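(Protein data)
===
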Amino acid sequence: MIVAIGTKNPAKVHAVQDSLISESITIVPVKVDSGVSEQPFSDEETLEGAINRANAALSITNAELAFGLEGGVQETKHGLMLCNWGALMHVDGGRWIAGGAKLPLPAGVVERLYKGEELASIMADITGEVDTRKKEGAIGIYTSGLVSRKGLFAHIVKLLYGQYLSSRDQTRH
């Protein structure tokens, strides 16, 4: 089976590869536009970006399934939180969504986000590393490496693929 992913970001691609390693599949990463802002600012916008990525990847490949994964931030009464969402689309129209863990961001980061900076550039300033979103991500930085961006997205991929597998087992529905 061919499975597309709507990105070439290594953290997201490896999340899919690692999560589905025991499956007999070919993974096809494709660069697509999320259709949302560079810095999504809500669960809804972040999820919309994931759905858009999955739909776009499915439409430009001959894949049976396509993943879309998107990171953003969400305002809560407890502060601005990291949020991560995923979508899985099947060529026959099936759709599954799942979200990941949330983590509050430090006040200095929040202030810069509200001024219009993107989280990736803030993380580059803080760490001195370029493209942390392709590596450990903000989640890795603020969990001292205990949770990586790849690991967070891998959890979402498993939630998505598990729903897909469950939907194929008619005894469960």
Summary: The beta strands are 2-5, 26-29, 65-76, 79-90, 95-99, 103-104. Residues 2-100+150-172 form a domain with the Maf protein fold (CATH 3.90.950.10).
